[in-house]
Design brief:
- This protein is α+β, with helices and mostly antiparallel strands and 178 residues long.
- It has 2 domains: 63 residues; 112 residues, Immunoglobulin-like, CATH 2.60.40.
- 34% of the residues lie in helices and 39% in strands.
- It contains 1 helix and 9 strands, in the order αβββββββββ.
- The strands form 2 sheets. The chain has a 5-stranded mixed beta sheet with strand order 2-9-8-4-6, with no helix packed on it. Strands 1-3-7-5 form a 4-stranded antiparallel beta sheet, covered by helices on one side.
- A hairpin with a 7-residue loop joins strand 8 and strand 9.
- The N and C termini lie far apart (74 Å).
- The mean pLDDT is 84.
C-alpha cells in the first residue's frame, strides 16, 4: 500500500510539470501573437503618416498655396498628446530661412490658451520650389479647461540671413478640448 502512495505522488508531480510546461508554451505563443499584431499596427500608423505627408506635398504642388495644415478644427481630450503635420512651400527664386511659430491666443469661453503646449521645429531652410513637411506636437494637460481655442501657424522668412523677419504665410485653426 505504501508503494501505491509513492507512485501516485510521483504521477501527480509529472502531471503538474506537464501542465506547467504547456502553460508556459501557451503564454509564449500568446505573447508572440500580440507582438506580431502590435508590430503590424505600428507599421500601419507609419504608413498613414507617410500618406498624410504625401497628400500635403501633392496639395501644395498642385496649388498656389504656401502653407497647408490638415485640421481646421482639431479635437483633443484632456491629457491627450498628439502629433500633427503641416507643409510649407518655398515659392521664391532662391533658398530661404524660415521661422515657424505655433501657438493659441484665445478661447471662446473661460479656458486659458497659454496653458496649451504646441511645439514644432522653429527654424529651417527650404530650397526654391521645394516643400518641407514638419510636425506639430500638441499636448493638452489633464486639467485643461474644456473649450475651443483659436490657434495659428505663423511663418516668416529671410532669403539672405538666418534671421527670418518678413511675414510669409499664416494659417489659423481651432483646437477643441473635450
Amino acid at each position: 500500500m505504501r508503494n501505491n502512495l509513492k507512485k501516485g505522488s510521483l504521477s501527480l508531480s509529472i502531471n503538474a510539470i506537464v501542465v506547467l510546461i504547456m502553460a508556459i508554451t501557451m503564454l509564449g505563443l500568446g505573447l508572440a501573437f500580440m507582438k506580431n499584431s502590435m508590430g503590424s499596427t505600428m507599421k500601419q500608423f507609419a504608413n498613414v503618416n507617410e500618406d498624410i505627408k504625401a497628400e500635403m506635398i501633392k496639395e501644395l504642388q498642385e496649388s498656389s498655396g504656401r502653407l497647408t495644415f490638415k485640421g481646421e478644427d482639431v479635437k483633443f481630450k484632456q491629457g491627450e498628446k498628439r502629433e500633427m503635420y503641416f507643409a510649407l512651400k518655398n515659392d521664391m527664386t532662391g533658398p530661404a530661412f524660415f521661422n515657424v511659430t505655433v501657438a493659441c491666443n484665445g478661447a471662446m469661453g473661460s479656458g486659458t490658451a497659454s496653458t496649451l503646449t504646441l511645439n514644432t521645429f522653429k527654424n529651417f531652410t527650404i530650397d526654391p520650389g521645394k516643400i518641407q513637411v514638419a510636425k506639430i506636437a500638441i499636448a493638452v494637460t489633464a486639467t485643461q479647461v474644456p473649450d475651443t481655442y483659436s490657434c495659428f501657424i505663423n511663418t516668416a522668412y529671410n532669403s539672405t540671413s538666418a534671421v527670418p523677419d518678413a511675414k510669409y504665410e499664416n494659417k489659423n485653426f481651432y483646437l477643441t478640448v473635450e
